Amino acid sequence: MARRQLFLNIEFADRFRKSYAEYQVREQDRIDELVMALSKGVNTPGMRIKPIEPEKYFYEARVNDADRLIFRVENGTLRVSDVVPHDLIGKYGR
Question: What fold is seen in the domain 9-92?
Answer without folding.
Answer: YaeB-like fold (3.30.2310)
